[in-house]
Write a structure and sequence with these properties.
CATH class of the largest domain: Mainly Alpha
Strand content: 5-15%
Order of helices and strands: EEHEHHHHH
CATH architecture of the largest domain: Orthogonal Bundle
Shape: globular
CATH topology of the largest domain: Non-ribosomal Peptide Synthetase Peptidyl Carrier Protein, Chain A
Largest sheet: 3 strands, mixed
Strand order of the largest sheet: 1-2-3
CATH superfamily of the largest domain: ACP-like
Number of helices: 6
Helix content: 25-40%
Length: 203
């Protein structure tokens, strides 16, 4: 079904252009069944034909902006899937909506963002995940299913409140100062909002 293909780099992610009659999402699923996740293109753009230079080679500069392959038809079925989709969206900060069956890497995810995702998972869900877990379960549905199956892995230890001291304030660390500066530069950011639901009973 694919007559021509070329792979380039876009924002440090693999971007494939194909001349095909196949559905891009179906083609990506076909590739995902046969290739390691990091070799599956994050962008898969179908074309009728490739732009060519006078010498007959593909003119890569004339290729259009790549299109991320998404599949947002199925809605989250459980609260855990809803939270996982929300955390994917927060970490990836993509303009396109993240579907429950979308790959983390199809939206530009990489190992550094995977580490950030595991931190958010720990904060919100109290589960200890690794970067490898994200690579092995790259969609919200698969990762939520994996989290639900965790029984033997210990959860993060509970926070223990310490006594307030009367001494002088401690200076912030370099990491804390960096976060403060970023917050000052981007005051309207929702990066550190935590999604949650509160059920109220009574009148």
């Amino acid at each position: 079904q694919v007559t021509q293909a070329v792979v380039t780099k876009h924002h440090d992610q693999l971007s494939a252009y194909v001349v095909t009659s196949a559905d891009p999402a179906e083609l990506r699923r076909h590739l995902a069944d046969r290739l390691p996740e990091h070799l599956v293109p994050a962008y898969l753009t179908p074309l009728d034909r490739f732009p060519l230079m006078p010498n007959g080679k593909i003119d890569k500069r004339a290729l259009p902006e790549p299109v991320a392959v998404v599949s947002t038809e199925r809605m989250p079925q459980t609260q855990l899937e809803e939270v996982t989709v929300a955390l994917f969206s927060r970490v990836l900060r993509t303009s396109a909506p993240v579907g429950v069956d979308d790959s983390f890497f199809a939206h530009g995810g990489h190992s550094l963002l995977a580490a950030r995702l595991t931190n958010h998972m720990a904060d919100v869900l109290g589960v200890r995940l690794t970067i490898r877990d994200v690579f092995q379960h790259p969609t919200p549905a698969r990762l939520a299913q994996y989290i639900a199956s965790l029984k033997g892995r210990p959860a993060l230890p509970p926070l223990v409140a310490g006594e307030a001291g009367d001494g002088p304030d401690s200076p912030v660390s370099f990491a804390q100062r960096r976060l403060w500066l970023l917050a000052e530069l981007d005051g309207g950011s929702t990066a550190y909002n935590v999604p949650m639901a509160v059920r109220l009973d009574g009148t």
